[in-house]
């Protein structure tokens, strides 16, 4: 599932290759990914225009249209991506934005989310999305967790904090040595500050890699191994469900 680092990578693709370039055509190959806009309206609104500098809010990517009231908003669901390519389209390329020298392609196998075109502020689409996880201060993070239940459920609740999914939340809690089922009410201030510090460390490294990296020194590099061992202590990792989500943790490093 694309999480904050992946979406930051998609933002960089759009910024590097498409910003300021004239959109020559918009090819909607599967209208099922369009949300609240028809293929015809999308094409009429964008052809001949340029994208302005895009920005990210957690798992959302926002691409304003230069000199106009429209803004394109994308969410990548479980399997989406944004790619700059040319040549024969992939069978899962749902919408293609054509430029001189290449194409920006919204690719998604499962089509769980999609693409919006809004006039004016994108807030109507972004709704109750919480602040971007990479931009949250330590003080704000403490406030956001107040009144929440299990710590992992709080981290992955997009209305609390935008951008963290299963992989990042498990990685952060493993590094902070906090069991994912821990009630937030039992955490000390030092525990919360440690989670915040590890969140920053993990996100900065993952953003640099433009993905959640499966490095062997990270929990993400071991979690899918049949007999995965904790990268820190060698204990066999536990697998379960927390808040309805598949979760991995180390019973020795994260007791509870």
From TrEMBL:
SUPFAM superfamilies: Glucocorticoid receptor-like (DNA-binding domain), N-terminal domain of MutM-like DNA repair proteins, S13-like H2TH domain
Pfam family, one: Fapy_DNA_glyco
Cofactor: Zn(2+)
Entry's Gene Ontology molecular function annotations: 8-oxo-7,8-dihydroguanine DNA N-glycosylase activity; class I DNA-(apurinic or apyrimidinic site) endonuclease activity; damaged DNA binding; zinc ion binding
Annotated ranges, domain FPG-type: 218-255
DNA damage keyword on record: yes
Domain Formamidopyrimidine-DNA glycosylase catalytic positions: 2-113
InterPro entries xref list: DNA_glyclase_Znf_dom_DNA_BS, FPG_cat, FPG_N, H2TH_FPG, Ribosomal_uS13-like_H2TH, Znf_DNA_glyclase/AP_lyase, Znf_FPG/IleRS
DNA repair keyword on record: yes
Keyword annotations from UniProtKB, A to Z: DNA damage, DNA repair, DNA-binding, Glycosidase, Hydrolase, Lyase, Metal-binding, Multifunctional enzyme, Zinc, Zinc-finger
Enzymatic reactions: 2'-deoxyribonucleotide-(2'-deoxyribose 5'-phosphate)-2'-deoxyribonucleotide-DNA = a 3'-end 2'-deoxyribonucleotide-(2,3-dehydro-2,3-deoxyribose 5'-phosphate)-DNA + a 5'-end 5'-phospho-2'-deoxyribonucleoside-DNA + H(+); Hydrolysis of DNA containing ring-opened 7-methylguanine residues, releasing 2,6-diamino-4-hydroxy-5-(N-methyl)formamidopyrimidine
Gene Ontology BP, a term: base-excision repair
Family: Belongs to the FPG family.
UniProt name for this protein: Fpg/Nei family DNA glycosylase
Organism: Amycolatopsis acidiphila
